[in-house]
Design brief:
With about 290 residues, the protein is mainly α. The protein contains 8 helices and 4 strands, in the order αααββββααααα. It folds into 2 domains: about 60 residues; about 200 residues, f41 fragment of flagellin, N-terminal domain (Up-down Bundle), CATH 1.20.1330.10. The strands form 2 sheets. It has a two-stranded antiparallel sheet with strand order 1-2. The longest helix has about 55 residues. The mean pLDDT is about 85.
């Protein structure tokens, strides 16, 4: 086969163009820090990148969900703790009032404090966080104790998904803390009535102890859910680290490798230019100079 000057020139131009394209590719990698600049560069990398980003977005949503659950649990735990302190104080007052050595003024002082503690417990039952009554189940837009003192603890669990297929109960039903029909408030009312009458005050001790037990049981259950949620958060954090690393391995360029490839391609480009200048034969114009 006869090799013409035109063939040599075309081959040289084609090779130089290829070398320039490769250099541009490696320079783009160094500028962007990514292996590809568009999906057509490597469809497999692009497809995996979409999958890993979707996984990261899902994990971040679960993290937002766990934050929401934490808000519910933290506020509920704080409210139940306040209820426990109020009930413990009421028991102290019951012990003090039942010893029979108090003056009428002391009885009146105990009575007034007991009434104030009851109002405090009502406020706790109507705890509102971000516009939601946390002790009223799924009916969180309505206070469980209305202005007339009517008590209605709605049922229903506020369930929030914190991981794939895993939901956590965010709320605590008021009935588990204050009783199905507000028996805790009945106990406090009985204590106040006995203080007013001055009779059978010691009977309130067992009733108060039972209500305190219910409050402590509710707080223990909240603590168990908080511990479980912490485990879920730790697992999400591990998944986020692994997925981020996998995404980086898939898309991010190895700078040392990219620089080496660029230097190599530049050397090849110079070698091609040098060889081309020797291969292409002189033209008539060169002889006319």
């Amino acid at each position: 086969m006869r090799v013409t000057q035109s063939m040599l020139s075309n081959n040289l131009l084609r090779n130089l163009t290829h070398n320039s394209t490769q250099m541009n590719k490696y320079m783009d990698q160094l500028y962007s820090g990514k292996k590809i600049s568009k999906p057509s560069d490597d469809p497999m990398i692009a497809m995996k990148g979409v999958s890993y980003r979707s996984e990261l977005a899902r994990i971040k949503q679960f993290e937002r969900n766990t934050s929401e659950v934490n808000s519910w649990l933290d506020n509920t735990d704080a409210a139940v703790d306040q209820a426990n302190h109020a009930m413990q104080r009421l028991r102290e007052l019951a012990v003090k009032a039942s010893n029979g050595t108090n003056s009428s003024d002391e009885y009146q002082s105990i009575l007034e404090e007991a009434k104030q503690l009851k109002e405090h417990l009502v406020d706790i039952a109507n705890t509102n966080v971000n516009g939601k009554y946390i002790f009223n189940g799924t009916n969180s837009n309505t206070p469980p104790i209305d202005e007339n003192g009517s008590i209605t603890f709605s049922g229903g669990d506020v369930l929030i998904e914190v991981s794939s297929g895993i939901t956590v109960k965010a709320n605590t039903n008021g009935s588990t803390v204050f009783g199905e029909n507000g028996e805790l408030f009945d106990t406090v009312d009985n204590f106040i009535n006995r203080l007013e009458s001055g009779e059978n005050i010691e009977e309130s001790l067992n009733e108060l102890d039972a209500s305190i037990g219910s409050v402590l049981d509710a707080r223990a259950e909240i603590g168990a859910r908080m511990n479980r949620l912490e485990l879920v958060e730790n697992r999400l954090a591990d998944q986020k680290i692994v997925t981020t690393k996998t995404l980086s391995d898939n898309e991010d360029v190895d700078f040392a490798e990219a620089i080496t490839n660029l230097i190599t391609q530049e050397s090849l480009h110079r070698a091609a230019l040098s060889a081309g200048s020797r291969i292409i034969q002189p033209s008539l114009v060169d002889f006319l100079r």
